[in-house]
Design a protein that fits this description.
The protein is of the alpha/beta class. Helix content is about 30%, strand content about 25%. It has helices spanning about 35-45, 75-90, 110-115, 120-125, 155-160, 180-185, 190-200, 215-225, 260-275, 300-310, 330-340, 345-355, 360-370, 385-390, 395-405; strands at about 1-10, 10-15, 20-25, 65-70, 95-100, 125-130, 140-145, 150-155, 160-170, 170, 175, 230-235, 250-260, 275-280, 285-290, 315-320, 375-380, 390-395, 415, 425.
């Protein structure tokens, strides 16, 4: 027997697998973190990529920063101080700066929640607010993209003289990659905008690690251009970021700043170097964790670990999703929509017939994968509630493994994805990326 560990909420679960099985751990590469994360941020700001010029924004009267919300472990405590100092150095007053939590279609963050992502000294010194995708009065309309997406954007951000997007650059299950303009183009958009953009997830080109021909991602790029996002400040982080209480800063691997599209061109090859993992053949069983808190804060976020596991699970195989989900599903729309559904087939058929809806799309993504494989869900959520979501609940990983391994012959292939949300699993030489 060999013992393995996998993140779960703010801790790890230990489990053992008999040596008679062929086990592979698919985890991001062990690339050393930046020795001095703050210096890495300063260097990126002083040497921006693309056609970005700080002098253009000297003494700007209004600056807006799109920052990620509590569901994404962005190292704001490291990124923000050098950025705010740089803004001060070019003559921008503190009271000209607004930080906006880019919640997308998530619920707006209250003051107590903002304090969990923004350092207290910054909260005390600058204006910090949360976006609300349903507050139409707080949005401005910029027209529509060439793909027909109506562009409703947070008015404070859209009207600012200098517009900056912060975030992590990492894999995304249907957007290809996060980063660049995304925290503003999606995170500060109206619900109608997000709904139309995310409906493109049904296109087969809307896939992980796919960029230039990914319709969802290129629609986001066009939204960002319509907004006029001037600067992106992106971190590429070790996926263990946030797993420990004191080690966050040292987990930054790279920092890139500059014109948003140029940040993507420079950053994507580095993301692939860190996150892409190739395997020779699919697995009979995959044990998959989003990566612990906050990636498994709710099922809305944790679902991505199931999607990434499905990429390398045999049809008819088993995927064990390991996610605590202390905040439930994270979507009342998801719960309400799935309430009267009795099978994955019904979910898929209804979703395709009705068209894309926020919340319903999460049910579709789960059912799409669960229709291809057996899914066992290890979670703290109440079992009856999990069953109403058409999933099979387990409170113990050992119990789920016992069921899954019982059906496998010696030599069966078992994959372990401890940081599935940040892992790009690829079978053979398949590659979706065409970066220009």
């Amino acid at each position: 027997m060999t013992t393995y560990r996998i993140p779960y909420n703010r801790t790890q679960l230990a489990f053992s697998i008999p040596d008679s099985f062929h086990v592979e751990v698919l985890a991001p590469a062990q690339i050393p973190p930046a020795e001095d994360p703050s210096r890495a941020v300063i260097d990126a700001l002083m040497h921006p990529v693309g056609e970005f010029d700080w002098s253009r924004f000297a003494r700007a009267k209004s600056v807006a920063l799109a920052i990620n919300d509590k569901t994404r472990p962005v190292p704001l405590a490291v990124l923000l101080p050098p950025l705010l100092q740089r803004l001060a150095d070019i003559g921008i007053a503190d009271d000209a700066i607004t930080l906006i939590a880019a919640t997308g279609t998530h619920a707006p963050m209250c003051a107590d929640e903002l304090a969990t992502v923004v350092p207290p000294e910054i909260l005390a010194r600058y204006r910090v607010m949360s976006h609300d995708c349903d507050d139409r009065a707080a949005l401005v309309n910029l027209g529509a993209t060439t793909r027909g997406t109506p562009v409703w954007i947070n008015g404070v951000f859209a009207r600012a003289e200098f517009r900056i997007a912060l975030g992590n650059l990492e894999p995304h299950q249907f957007m290809g990659f996060s980063g660049g303009v995304k925290s503003a183009a999606v995170g500060l958009a109206g619900r109608e905008t997000v709904t139309r953009n995310h409906s493109m997830m049904l296109d087969p080109r809307a896939n992980i690690a796919r960029y230039d021909d990914n319709p969802a991602r290129q629609d986001v790029e066009e939204i960002g251009k319509m907004i006029g996002v001037h600067l992106a400040l992106n971190a590429i982080v070790n996926p263990a970021y946030g797993a420990g209480p004191n080690g966050e800063n040292k987990q930054i691997v790279h920092v890139i700043a500059g014109e948003p599209r140029a940040v993507m061109r420079v950053g994507i090859p580095r993301v692939l170097e860190l996150y892409e993992q190739r395997v020779a053949a699919p697995f009979d069983l995959v044990v998959s964790s989003p990566g612990g808190h906050p990636k498994d804060i709710n099922l809305y976020q944790a679902q991505k670990a199931l999607a990434h596991a499905t990429f390398v699970t045999k049809p008819g195989g088993t995927a064990i999703l390991v996610a605590a989900c202390p905040e439930g599903t994270g979507s009342r729309h998801y719960e309400d929509w799935i309430a009267d559904k009795t099978s994955h087939a019904q979910v898929i058929e209804t979703f395709k017939r009705e068209g894309y809806r926020i919340g319903a799309h999460k049910a579709f993504q789960i059912s799409r994968d669960a229709s291809l494989e057996r899914v066992l869900f290890v979670t703290d959520l109440p079992p009856e509630f999990v069953r109403r979501l058409l999933l099979t609940p387990y409170s113990s990983l050992d119990d789920a493994l016992g069921i899954a391994l019982r059906d496998l012959a010696p030599g069966a292939r078992v994959g372990i994805l401890p940081y599935a949300n940040a892992t790009i699993p690829v079978i053979g030489n398949t590659h979706h990326l065409e970066l220009q």
